[in-house]
Amino acid sequence: MWLRRARPRVRSTSRLFATFAAASLVPVVTLGALVVQDYRRDAAEQGRAQGLAQADVIAQMVVAPALNSGEPHTLGGDLSRRGLTAEQYDRMRESTGLAVYRGSVQHLRLRGFTGRVIFADDGSTSNGVPASDPDFQAAVQGHPRAKVITGRTQTIRVVQPLFAGATGQSVGVLEVYLPYQPIADRLDHQVTQTVRRIGGGLAVLYLVLALLAWWTTRSLRRYAADQRHSALHDALTGLPNRLAFRTWADDVLERARRDGAPGAVVLVDLNRFKEVNDTLGHHAGDELLREVSERFRAGLGPHDILSRLGGDEFALMLPGRTGPETVALLEEVRDRLAAEMVLDGVPLSIEASFGIALYPEHGVSLQELKQHADVAMYQGKRGTADIVVYSGDGISHSQQWLVVQAELRHALERDELVLHYQPKVGLPDGEVTALEALVRWQHPERGLLPPGDFLPAAEHSGLIVPLTEWVLRRALTDRLGWTAAGQSWAVSVNVSVRNLEVAGFPDLVAELLAGTGTPADRLVLEVTETALAGDVDTVERVLARVAALGVGLSVDDFGAGFTSLSHLRGQPVAEIKIDRKFVADVAHDPQSRAIVRSVIELAHALGSRATAEGVETAEVYRWLIEAGCDEAQGYLIGRPVPWPQVDPAMFAVPGAVSEEVSATMIEGLPR
Amino acid sequence: MIFLRRAAAAAGIALALAAGGCTGGENAVVAAGAVDEVGAVAMDAALHAKLPEAVRTRGFVRLVTDASYAPMEYFAADGRTIIGFEPDLAAALGQVLGVRVEMVVGVFNTALDEVSAGTYDGVLSSMTDTEDRRDKADFVNYFSTGTSILVQRGNPKGIAGLDDLCGHAVATEKGTYQETMLVQAAKKCGTAPLRIISLPTNADALVELRLGRVVAALQDYPPASYLASDERTSAFFQLASNEQYEPGLFGIAVDRRNAALRDCLRDALQRLIDSGTYGDLLARWELTASGVTKATVNGI
Q1: Which keywords does UniProt give here (chain A) (predicted)?
Q2: Which of A78, A196, A258, B85 holds its CA 20 to 30 A away from the CA of A152?
Q3: pLDDT, tens digit (0-9, with 9 covering 90-100), for A392-435
Q4: What 3 state SS string does B65-114 have?
Q5: In terms of domains, do A181 and A47 share one?
Q6: A-chain residues within 8 Å CB-CB of B204?
Q7: Domain co-membership, B106 together with B121
């Protein structure tokens, strides 16, 4: 995973460096070539200038004195007309002989402007530069010219006007051939030396540039890597963050789709992390997360991806693992997590809820899988199991929930919700004591929906809070209605654990009571048992404040949920409602009977009323009376209806019963 | 074009003759010796007609010169072209006369003899008009100046005047009026003789002075002043004093027997003086102070 990601960066930086190196090589080489070329040209120019200077000296010190020796009339005009006097000729031979012999001068000729040879060191009159040569013509016009000629040896040929006397008059052309080899050798040597120096300097410069480029690209690479790392990783734990998880998990899923490989997406939520944060401080919370990450990592394989999505929420991508393998792995991880750790001197045991979604069976997209894993995880949080594999029936939920949540928002605004009431009667007299408010949704398309169709969705979002508020308000208003009609029934309203986690809830209740002028003892809040198992501290505080208002608290669905009895201790419970599961079975199941009887006793012992839910037969009704249950509720007594339809008459056990009912009655009743 | 211009000039002359010498017409041609609309000096057909037959047939006049006397006449950098005030004056004279006036390099000392022998038509080489020379030639005077004493920069021997030259060697060009002046001066020296070094060209005299073999060189004021102020030579030479000795006239020497050419040259020069062209040429070479106001022959 890591190697695969590191490679493209290395390639791109080496390419960057190569580009740098190549780009800087071009100007360096160009500069070198230009400098060398310039230097060579300068050297050649220098050689020519030297040749010219040398020829000038020869002209003035050798030739001019030899010519000047004669009579005045020999001066002036063109040598090719007059030639030399015998004396001048001899003196020329004398003064040039030695230089020619020693090789200081290779050849020396005096020419007339027409090109005629007036004097030559070797006596020949047919040799020499052609009169039509541009150099010769320039010399005729008064401009000296030097040219390097490469034959068997290098020679510099100078053709220049011959100024014979002090007047500055040119009388002809002097043609001198000077040995250039020593000069050329020296210049070559200089050029070579310069080329070496410049080449060396440029090489060093290039090296420095290359080093700088290398150093810069390395810094850039590191910086980019750092940036990338921090963009994709959680600073606290060093784990891949949500973004990285999505990217990498998408890759894995893409490959899995091609290969048909199985795997799992797991969402993990730590239980009671908030408690640790609140009680031990954020520092401890951070420490806890780090420790948890370490333990997670230790339990995972090299191809598994662990990511912290945020808060105490983690995600796992486990490619190539089947459901059982995943569960086995997670059990191991759970055990590692559960091992005691000490934070700030406080020993802790961390528990977590794991929601598993398997691919391809639970979906192929990450979005889908995460949603399903989320559903499974919440299931785990509410249930007893801490590792929950998503089960297919939740599919409709999770997908529909979003729709429901959106619609429910509108429903509240459009007042599409209605309250139905189910009566509770006192035992044994059968007088209606209270009505339980049950919310229904008059859906514009789907008709009247039972609460099971939308409450879980509402509870899963924050929507339950305004919903409960609405129910409370409506229920209290309705109570005013039946009070006006002469009934003194109390009203029961179900509240979710989410309501109890909102600190302002007691104030809301108090405000509504005051607003409707309802005596506090006429309101009962029914709390599901699981609510008591939630964030204990907050819930307990809220419950205590609500109870302090005088409002009765009722434990709903007792026996079906997951609570330890200790939760009941310290709670000001007015009523315990025995779950319908047990109540329905009392007719034929001795164990249920034992349980119900015990709960009734428990309720009484706690100073609460015991209320049986789901009373559907007269047989059960009679048994409950006998068992000493305080109140009953169920279809036998009355279905949920709008309150004006509630039968206010004293409930009487119907005399005529169906055969089925009488059969169970015979079986269920003690004889 | 040339044909047209010539035709116009001829027509102008014809018109002038027909008008019986009446001048100053609106459509009169440019006065002889002045520059026309394209900067060329206008010809005087009457003078051309007065030229000796041989000259008109040849179409040119050859004047000998020793080109070692900047800025009067000297060699350009190419060593072949003669430049200076005198070549310019010669060309202008030629244009007025309608013939080419050539400057030919020769030896100053023998120049008059060459003219007498008929090799050249005259001498135009900063030659001073003296009585002695009038035996051989007539002089058309075109310039007025005196002689200066040129010494090495710093004047190491402290030469202030001609008298100070006694006991020293002094260089000059052979055959010049300055040589004569030195001969005169040497006579007054007595026990400390003045040694005169006469050389073929003025340049040779300057070489002697530059090398310190002589204490001074005598030459006319214009070239001496030029040497003392030109940036290439002012480091080596200076004037002993601002005094100009024995001021006199320069003249174009023409053979005594060639009065026609002499008069034509004088008249042509007068045309140039009158038209201002002469003054312009002087100004070009910074010689305005030495100009003459009237063209004369042998000072008259």
Answers
A1: Membrane, Transmembrane, Transmembrane helix
A2: A196
A3: 654 445 456 667 777 887 888 888 888 999 999 988 788 888 99
A4: ECCEECCCEEECCCCCCEECHHHHHHHHHHHHHCCEEEEEECCHHHHHHH
A5: yes
A6: 165-166
A7: yes
pTM of the predicted model as reported, rounded to 2 decimal places: 0.53
pLDDT tens sequence across B147-203: 999 999 999 999 999 999 999 999 999 999 999 999 999 999 989 999 999 998 899
Residue contact B201–A166, C-beta within 8 A: yes
Facing B75 at nearest CB: one of A141, A162, A168:
A168
Query: What token pair was written down for A281?
Result: 């401080």
Same domain, B47 and B93: yes
Within 8 A of A75 by CB-CB distance, chain B residues are: 107, 200-201
ipTM: 0.74
Task: Identify all chain A residues contacting B201, using CB atoms and an 8 Å cutoff.
Answer: 72, 75, 165-167
**A112 with A149, same domain?**
yes
Q: Do A167 and B74 make contact, defined as CB atoms within 8 angstroms?
A: yes
Tokens matching residue A597: 């009887």
Residues A537, A430 within the same domain? yes
- Token readout for A227 is 């940036």
Beta bridge partners of A355: A267, A388
Residues B256, B111 share a domain = yes
A306 and A372 inside one domain = yes
Q: How far does chain A reach from its first CA to its final CA, in angstroms?
A: 74
* The three-state (H, E, C) secondary structure of A489-520, written as one string: CEEEEEECHHHHCCCCHHHHHHHHHHHHCCCH
User: Residue B156, preceding bond cis, omega within 30 degrees?
Assistant: no
Residue-range definition of the domain harbouring residue A372: 242-392
Residues B127 and B267 in one domain: yes
Pick from B78, B105, B207: which is nearest to A166 by CB? B207
Do residue B119 and residue B155 come from a single domain? no
A-chain CB neighbours of B73 within 8 Å are none
Best B75, B108, B125, B198 member to test A by mutation, with max A CBs in 10 Å, is B75
Same-domain check for residues A155 and A263: no
Q: What is the CATH number of the domain that holds A440?
A: 3.20.20.450
Token digits of residue A564: 């330890």
Q: How far is B192 from chain A (nearest CA, A)?
A: 30
Cβ contact, residue pair A72, B109, below 8 Å: yes
Q: Which residue of B has its CA nearest to A170?
A: B79
DSSP element (H, E) containing A555:
strand A552-558
Evaluate whether A472 touches A478 at the Cβ level (below 8 Å).
no
Enumerate the residues of chain B whose CB falls inside 8 A of the CB of residue A144: none
B94 and B63, same domain (yes or no): yes
- Nearest Cβ partner for B78 among A72, A161, A165: A161
- Nearest residue of A to residue B105, measured between CA atoms: A76
Residue A617 lies in a domain: yes
In this structure, are residues A28 and A205 in contact, taking their beta carbons and an 8 Å threshold?
A: yes
> Per the structure, how many domains does chain B have?
2
Give the domain range for residue B232. 146-246
Residues of B in contact with A81 (CB under 8 A): none
Q: Which two tokens stand for residue A443?
A: 């859906």
**DSSP output for A49-112:** HHHHHHHHHHIIIIIHHHHHTS-GGG-SS-HHHH---HHHHHHHHHHHHHHHHHTSSSEEEEE-
Give the β-pairing of B60-65 and B100-105: parallel
Instruction: Let me know if residue A204 belongs to a domain.
Output: no
**Low-confidence residues of chain A, pLDDT below 50?**
1-8, 73-74, 394-396, 398, 656-671
Q: What value does the mean pLDDT take over residues B4-16?
A: 47
How many structural domains is chain A composed of?
A: 3
Q: What is the CATH number of the domain that holds B8?
A: 3.40.190.10
Report the residue of B179, B198, B201 to disrupt the A interface, i.e. the one with the largest count of A CBs within 10 Å: B201
Give the one of B67, B110, B202 whose C-beta lies nearest to A169's C-beta: B67
